[in-house]
Amino acid sequence: MTDNLDLATAARIEPIQEDGLPGHESALEPKPDWQPRYPGSGRLAGKVAIVTGADSGIGRAVAVLFAREGAKVAISYLCEHDDASLTRELCEAEGSEAFVFPGDLGDPDCGKALVAKTIDEFGRLDIVVNNAGEQHPDKDIRDITPEQLQRTFQTNIFSMFYLVQAAREHLKKGAAIINCTSITMYQGSAELLDYSSTKGAITAFTRSLSENLVKDGIRVNAVAPGPIWTPLNPMGGASPEKLETFGEDTPMGRPGQPNEVAPAFLFLACEDSSYMSGQVLHPNGGTIVNG
Q1: Which of 252, 285, 280, 277 is nearest to 264 (CA)?
Q2: Domains, the chain
Q3: In what side-by-side order are the strands of the sheet with 98-102?
Q4: 127, β-bridge pairs
Q5: What letters, b where the CB count within 10 A reaches 16 and e where it falls short, cover 91-102?
Q6: Triad 261, 266, 270: Cα angle to 5°
Q7: pTM of whole model > 0.85?
Q8: d(C-alpha 156, C-alpha 34), whole Å
Q9: Which residues cross the membrane (predicted)?
Q10: Burial class of residue 3 in the structure, from the number of CB atoms within 10 Å of its CB (0-12 exposed, 13-18 middle, 19+ buried)
Q11: Residues marked as catalytic
């Protein structure tokens, strides 16, 4: 296997990181807890998964947990090459196979290239985890520029359409799609107007795509995390004031860790959830939400 893209393809989809987001986990202190908590039991043996935003945070925890459970993993990420390489090493340390794939999934060609490489490397595709996302805090709606609004929707929801479109022909009966929505879809967020709006769209997309694919034996579900300690918030995705008390307003009084969220993705990816589609799981520290 190789981690290198065709140069022409890479030149087209290699992103320009304009604002420092989503940030490097290697620079974050304290480090998030991504380590799987339990021995694997082969629940994803023989499966192949694409995990977007898998260089760090929730995506890394999901990728490594999937590898522990026997899946081969395509590690999709924007441009944090050092973090992504570590995720690949961690997956391989679990005895599985993985490759890294940089690119901006807001570009439809990136999703097509990612799926093509996955099929070329592993010969099949069973699980798509749409986890990649970005957020930008703004206290006044007038501060949200058209460029930011379009970019947030492009990254958070358009990318999911593009990737599923590219993956659809390869997803057979028994396949699973898991989308990452957010507690902000249910509660709202005064400082994350555009981000929260995309998460509402993701939940609607999850339910509608489930209705569209369930007849073909493909299940579509989502996970709606609460405040989780990842690079997304401390690297510019939250205001300094919010970071001072990040997660303290949950019933548990603390932010969650990525390895407290990853098992929800595993449950929805494997046969343990064979009678679930169109549903959302809520690892959020005990906050009660409807839906």
Answers
A1: 280
A2: 28-35+44-280 (3.40.50.720)
A3: 98-102, 72-77, 48-52, 127-130, 176-180, 219-223, 280-281
A4: 49, 176
A5: beebebbbbbbb
A6: 160
A7: yes
A8: 22
A9: none
A10: middle
A11: 195
**φ, ψ (nearest 5 deg) of residue 138:** -145, 125
Cα angle 102-107-109, degrees, rounded to a multiple of 5:
80
Nearest residue to 22 via CA among 142, 164, 151 = 151
Q: Identify the CA nearest to 233 among candidates 274, 182, 164, 171.
A: 182
pLDDT in tens, 107-118: 999 999 999 999
- CA dist., res. 213 & res. 78, Å (int): 28
Distance separating alpha carbons of residues 127 and 218, to the nearest angstrom: 10
Q: pLDDT for 7-34, tens place per residue?
A: 334 333 444 344 555 566 666 667 888 8
Q: Which two tokens stand for residue 161?
A: 């359409």
Which residues fall within 8 angstroms of residue 121, CB to CB, at 6 or more apart?
1, 72, 74, 97, 99
